[in-house]
């Protein structure tokens, strides 16, 4: 999972770097007339940084917890004790279940294929990166060994005119062009061709300019980025431009204070170093190069011109704008491809459980990896314990303290099958799950509440306070804000919405809020028409408080095909002083009239003394 996430983030930075490369190349005909080659040399550093640093920005998001109440449509069930009875799957609509299963299988297959494909690509990328790094290091190691074997350390007091840093100087017979190599211990390689004082001076000016600008470090960094983004053609173009413009900008820096005769001497020195053995050596600062590039360098030297201070300032500002814009775009893209939160799962002792398959939130429920949690919690240690997968059906056999249990569940269906071991699993009951199991990236995920039931509630496992043990969670946004309470509230609201698909449940929830005098809560169970008609300042239907005593539902209400449902309730109540009730009256009976909404929930539409 970590490799896959790293690869996804890398693709975003690679895309951002490619886009910036395209912009710089597109406007190059303009910028080369306005800005100096030093600007063109260092602007590629911005591209390298963008491609290597996965910067992310927290874009303001609408809280998923806040959205959840409008999305909740699945009925759930609170389970605190081991269930002994339940609904069988045959009670569901067979055709609907088949359609859902088929759709889920298609989605699961597509999701698994994409996940596996991404994993393969990520592995190929990682292998390619290490291969390129190994080849580079091996080549550089061979060069180092060759230099030490074929060269001798010499004294070069002329260096003191250009730097007070300690630089090792070696003279080599097999190399014709001078260069600097090494970051920690820089070494200047000089050809053993009998250099004149004037030639040596030109060489030292050139190579010490590279040294002071830390061009070797720049080239190492560029090469590392190329190895990381080996699959992206743009990075090869960028590295090539860095190598070319490194030499041109160095030349221009060296000759900036030279007169015409000194420039000619400098060019003659470069020409004198050319030979059939001249070639570019990676990760070094060679003074010579190909004839085509040398022609370009000499042309730039002859046509050199000073850059005004205004243009220098403008070039810095434009570079900053380009970099910040690209980084912002990269950060936004990275933000869109990553989770907006992290979830910590803890056991009943409050210890964090490290999971390779990340939990996630779906429909305001916290989903956790089924198999991995069973493994982490030690439920699969027994030889009699197993988890079997068969085309979307999962069969789980676990043993806890010599007590066996069997669970059966299906991807996309919200029934958890139970069967006692002595029945050979042939006959069992099923209980409704909090939400359907999901297959994501080849891993089965279930709602944390359902996992608690299978691990703790079914076995009746309790803590030292005789409370049922359970796994808990904490949800954190990317900025570190704890939003656990909001998610829990959304989950609770989801359960209520599921319960409200039964009219008697809506009535019970309303009366429970009425008993506590929570009028704002009571309004959530009523239509706007009911609120406008029956709610007053601190009372409803003439009562300040009402506590349920008895419910009477006529069986014909269940048989009706209409969307209305009437429930007769008897309550102990406190009358409002301005109501029709006698001030001493403490109980009454009335009808709660409910109406089914388009989303399947029942809301109270009115109250009546008779229907």
UniProtKB/TrEMBL annotation:
InterPro entries: Beta-lactam_resp_regulator, Cu_amine_oxidase-like_N, Peptidase_M56. It comes from the Bacteria. Residues 10-301 form the Peptidase M56 domain. Residues 350-449 form the Copper amine oxidase-like N-terminal domain. Keywords: Membrane, Transmembrane, Transmembrane helix. The chain crosses the membrane at residues 6-27, 39-59, 120-141, 310-333. It holds the Pfam family Cu_amine_oxidN1. PANTHER family: POSSIBLE SENSOR-TRANSDUCER PROTEIN BLAR (PTHR34978), SLR0241 PROTEIN (PTHR34978:SF3). This is Peptidase M56 domain-containing protein. It comes from Congzhengia minquanensis. The lineage of its organism: Bacteria, Bacillati, Bacillota, Clostridia, Eubacteriales.
């Amino acid at each position: 999972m970590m490799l896959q996430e790293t690869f996804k983030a890398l693709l975003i930075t690679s895309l951002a770097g490619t886009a910036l490369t395209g912009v710089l190349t597109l406007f190059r005909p303009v910028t080369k007339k306005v800005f100096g080659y030093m600007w063109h040399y260092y602007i590629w550093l911005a591209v390298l940084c963008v491609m290597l640093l996965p910067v992310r920005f927290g874009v303001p998001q609408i809280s998923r917890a806040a959205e959840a109440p409008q999305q909740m449509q699945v009925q759930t069930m609170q389970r605190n004790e081991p269930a002994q009875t339940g609904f069988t799957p045959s009670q569901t609509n067979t055709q609907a279940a088949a359609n859902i299963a088929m759709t889920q299988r298609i989605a699961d297959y597509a999701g698994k294929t994409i996940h596996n494909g991404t994993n393969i690509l990520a592995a190929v990328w990682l292998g390619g990166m290490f291969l390129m790094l190994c080849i580079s290091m091996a080549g550089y190691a061979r060069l180092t060994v060759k230099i030490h074997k074929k060269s001798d350390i010499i004294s070069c007091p002329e260096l003191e005119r250009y730097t007070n840093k300690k630089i090792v100087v070696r003279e080599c017979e097999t190399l014709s062009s001078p260069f600097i190599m090494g970051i920690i211990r820089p070494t200047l390689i000089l050809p053993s061709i009998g250099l004149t004082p004037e030639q040596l001076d030109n060489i030292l000016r050139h190579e010490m300019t590279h040294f002071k600008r830390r061009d070797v470090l720049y080239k190492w960094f560029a090469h590392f980025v190329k190895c990381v983004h080996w699959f992206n053609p743009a990075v090869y173009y960028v590295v090539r431009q860095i190598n070319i413009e490194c030499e041109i900008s160095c030349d221009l820096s060296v000759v900036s204070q030279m007169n015409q005769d000194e420039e000619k001497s400098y060019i003659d020195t470069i020409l004198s170093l050319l030979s059939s053995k001249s070639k570019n050596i990676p990760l070094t600062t060679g003074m010579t190069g190909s004839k085509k590039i040398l022609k370009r360098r000499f042309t730039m030297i002859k046509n050199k011109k000073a850059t005004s201070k205004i243009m220098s300032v403008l070039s810095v500002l434009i570079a900053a704008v380009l970099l910040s814009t690209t980084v912002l775009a990269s950060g936004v893209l990275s933000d869109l491809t990553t989770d907006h939160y992290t979830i910590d799962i803890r056991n009943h002792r409050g210890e964090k459980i490290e999971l390779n398959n990340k939990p996630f939130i779906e429909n305001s429920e916290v989903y956790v990896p089924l198999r991995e949690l069973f493994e982490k919690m030690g439920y699969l240690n027994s030889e009699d314990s197993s988890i079997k997968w068969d085309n979307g059906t999962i069969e789980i056999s676990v043993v806890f303290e010599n007590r066996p249990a069997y669970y059966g569940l299906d991807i996309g269906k919200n029934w958890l099958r139970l069967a006692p071991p002595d029945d050979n699993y042939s006959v069992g009951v099923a209980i409704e799950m909090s939400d359907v199991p999901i297959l994501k990236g080849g891993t089965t995920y279930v709602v944390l509440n359902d996992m608690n039931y299978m691990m703790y509630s079914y076995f009746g496992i309790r803590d030292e306070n005789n409370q049922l043990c359970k796994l808990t969670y904490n949800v954190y946004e990317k900025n570190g804000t704890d939003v656990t309470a909001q998610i829990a509230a959304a989950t609770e609201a989801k359960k209520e919405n599921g319960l409200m698909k039964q009219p008697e449940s809506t009535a019970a929830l309303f009366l429970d809020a009425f008993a506590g005098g929570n009028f704002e809560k009571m309004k959530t169970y009523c239509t706007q028409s009911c609120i406008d008609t029956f709610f007053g300042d601190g009372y409803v239907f003439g009562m300040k408080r009402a506590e349920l005593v008895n419910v009477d539902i006529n069986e014909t209400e269940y048989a009706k095909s209409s969307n209305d449902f009437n429930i007769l309730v008897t309550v102990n109540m406190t009358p409002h002083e301005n109501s029709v009730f006698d001030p001493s009256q403490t109980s009454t009976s009335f009808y709660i009239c409910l109406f089914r909404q388009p989303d399947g929930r029942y809301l109270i539409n009115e109250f009546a003394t008779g229907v």
